[in-house]
Amino acid sequence: VSDLIAASPAAKFIALIDLNTPPWLQRKLHLDSFDAISSAACSDGWRAAAKEWLAAAIGYLETHYGERMVGYALMAGQTTEWFEVVVGRTGPEKNAAWREWCARRGFDGGEVVPSEAEFTRAAFENVLYDPTSERRKIEYWRFHNGMIASALIEMAQAAKSAAPKKEIGSFFGYYNICNRNLASVGHLAYEEAMAAPCLDFVLSPATYTEREIGHSTLTMTVPGTLRRHGKRFFHEIDFWPHDRKVWFAGEPYWHSPAETIAGNTREAAYAIVNGASFWWFDQQGTFYSFPGMHERIAKLAEIKRRFEDDRSPLLADVLFVSDPESACAMVDRESAQRAEGPACPDGFAPSLGVGEGLGRIVGRTGFAFDTCALADLPHLDLSHVKAFVLPGVWTIDGKAADILRRFVLKSGKTAVWTYAPGVSDGRTLDAARVRTWAGVDFRTPDVATTGMDGWTSVYAYDYRKLTAEKFVGILTAAGCHRWTDVPSAVVANERLLSVHVKDGGRMKVRLPCSCAKVVDLLSGETVATDAASFDFDFASPDTRIFEMVAQACTYRVEMPRADGLYAV
Q1: 246 CB-contact burial (10 Å; exposed 0-12 / middle 13-18 / buried 19+)
Q2: Is the pTM of this model over 0.90?
Q3: Reading across the β-sheet that carries 13-18, which strands appear in turn?
Q4: Positive or negative, the Cα torsion across 138, 139, 144, 149?
Q5: What pLDDT was estimated at residue 376?
Q6: Strands, E, within 132-225: which ranges?
Q7: In 3-state terms, the chain is what percent helix, strand and coil (to 5)?
Q8: Which end of the chain is more exposed for a tag (fewer CB within 10 A), N or C?
Q9: What are the start-end ranges of the E strands in 453-524?
């Protein structure tokens, strides 16, 4: 800290505090929280030791650098992001916690947690667990994820007690992650964590698949849930640039200075438009040292500062809906002994279409989209949403059915389903239920569009049938606004618009309404006046951030007078 202050006298800090067990504590507790955070979460010894160390670390920093410390981010588990990828590993404390957890729910889950072998098969097409015959597996994933969330909340409460005026955050809520191991990663109880008053902000990188130029930004966490609970969002930009090969991974995501600048601009623009914070994570040093990158970072920081207090609503009329409850009933890749994903009889893995699977396809079509959880829907403004993409809603119980009917399946909206929507009601499995929600039978081939009771259902048994071309047709028919006619990644609010393209050229950008002027914030040039669309020469590749300045309007207002006439 002193070294950094010497280099940057005005610097302030968010301290990332690692709560994982050091080697001496691993031997004492017979567990390693980095490898098995759920076991550590069940251990009174680990919780006590972690809180003691946390209080000491924060106490020291507050005493010596208190005026410099903005907040504290709590880290544990694998990659220090509260991850776990082992299945079936247990011990006396975890087994005891399992029995207690089941007893509180009136459920006999056995003396010990299920073994890895139990998770390798599922009754419904080897994809979904049957809540009648396989309830023990579903309940275990609820327990596993819930214990990790409860440990995070306990640590956040301890941190808030040690520094009550500082912001407390963590890496958490990763639903849009590799969907072959969504349950075992341990973040499915993120809604509980987001609702905790002691947690002020969440950090998350973008998804690690398809980060290349031309793709969209899809954060691993769920922004709609963060907004619902008033949490700040911290977007981590950790993409490997063209001139650096990371030792633990493959080739860089970007392959030239132009790609690295366009890609980093895309990520920063996503945060700026979403009203989020962002940071460039230099994983190995000198990530951003080539000519032009520092200048672009400085310009993006300037734009961020200018719009820091802007709270313009998002213009995303496509909404992806996550469902952690259904994910607990889905066979996990790690559970299936690191197979390539549980395949149904038709040879594909439905889990791979959940979350990021379809988001990265829609994200390249020129439509703007957002994400939220099923339980968030009653708490968000959905008036502008025209299409809901629900790729992993397998379990629809009474509460979920009520939410869907009240907020989604109504008023000319479009719902896009995959595989087996509503096959479970939380108590039993029945493939005949799919017709209730999809409008067609389970396994109906290709993509079926059905007019329902005032709304439209689009069903794809195989999510791979929902190509970019199919989505363009579906979303256009739903009345969603397509900003460009070419493959592009768009994120927009009522004031700011970001457009990212791989292949440039002169392109038309359509606005949702006429604007007094449109300004390219990177160059400072006005590119259009009094226009509902404009043509722009994009480079190859390119990311631009535009400010859309609203039209000045004149209104006729008639006020009644006492004599019965009107004053205008």
Answers
A1: middle
A2: yes
A3: 13-18, 69-75, 167-171, 201-205, 232-237, 277-280
A4: positive
A5: 97
A6: 167-171, 201-205
A7: 30, 25, 45
A8: C
A9: 456-460, 489-492, 496-501, 505-520
Lookup: tokens for 452: 């329902």
Contact by Cβ (8 Å): 264, 237: yes
Q: How far is CA 458 from CA 265, 346, 390, 451, 471, in A?
A: 34, 20, 10, 9, 10
> What residue ranges of the chain have pLDDT lower than 70?
178-179, 333-342, 552-568
- Give the number of other Cβ atoms within 10 Å of residue 157's Cβ: 16
The type of residue at 75 is: M
Q: Which amino acid is at 35?
A: D
For the stretch 262-293, pLDDT in tens is: 999 999 999 999 999 999 999 888 889 899 99
Mean pLDDT of the chain: 93
pLDDT (tens digit, 9 = 90+) per residue, 367-419? 999 999 999 999 999 999 999 999 999 999 999 999 999 999 999 999 999 99
Report d(CA 464, CA 476) in Å as an integer: 19
Residue ranges in 276-355 assigned as alpha helix (H): 293-306, 324-327
Structure tokens at 259: 């790609």
The predicted pLDDT at position 551 comes to 79
Distance from C-alpha of 1 to C-alpha of 455, rounded to nearest angstrom: 57
Q: Is 300 left (phi over 0), alpha (psi -120 to 50) or beta?
A: alpha
Conformational region of residue 147, where left means phi above 0, alpha means psi within -120 to 50, and beta covers everything else: alpha
